[in-house]
Model the fold of this input.
Amino acid sequence: MTTAVVRRAAELHARYVPGAPRAVVMTLGALHEGHAANIKAARASLPPGGQVVVTVYVNPLQFAAGEDFDRYPRTLETDVELAGAAGADLVFAPLDEEVYPAGEPLVRVSAGPLGDRLEGAARPGHFDGVLTVVAKLLHLTAADRATFGEKDAQQLALIRRMVADLGFPVEIVGVPTVREPDGLALSSRNRYLSAPERTTALALSRALNAAAALPGASASAVRAAAAAELEAAALADPPLALDYLALADPVAFTEVPADHTGDAVLAVAARVGSTRLIDNVRLTLGADA
Done:
């Protein structure tokens, strides 16, 4: 499939097909099979004649000082190839002035209290930057639906809440996390890991699997099973440095109480070397209690 690359919003608008639904997959670039799954889901959600747009934009607003904005991989040529193979019609790789024409925006979308928890507490202002660029790209792409990976569970919850609270006429679709054969959740940052660091990083998926192997368990049992794996990895060489392990409500992302039953998200964030990784799993607690 031939996939066109457009850099200007005017050109993207010119390629809009009246009456044909459009789905967007937003990325920072450095595409991998997780992104491909999102693109395939977007394609499958559309009728014949529908248009899939993949955005590739390294958004400076969501990177704090000292994070990896400058070293984040820029691989547009291979991104276009992967996007096209997965079913994209267009790749929108906008210039900075297309997204933020007046420079750094003075008005931004606030993530509110939900954006101050877990990832938001670890990365202050991150979700304001995410929601600002998502809102802008939804506007520029004029999409009817957008697909996002469930690996970034809190981000997905925030985008859904923004769309609902602010009345965006777009459907948000979550796509299950794609994993490498060893269980590591696919991420563009995995390429930063050395071989020993990657071995240590597998503790994240082991912790989630240990919790998921206890269907219907209590919140305390789930937390303990996951924590045991992460504590062992903290003694590895190189060690895993835990940012947080949270058993959270899937909508509010507040910690669930000990007697909680029903749906929850077990979320983990940790550093291995200089690389920060996140992962999560959906659980049902207390079903057998």
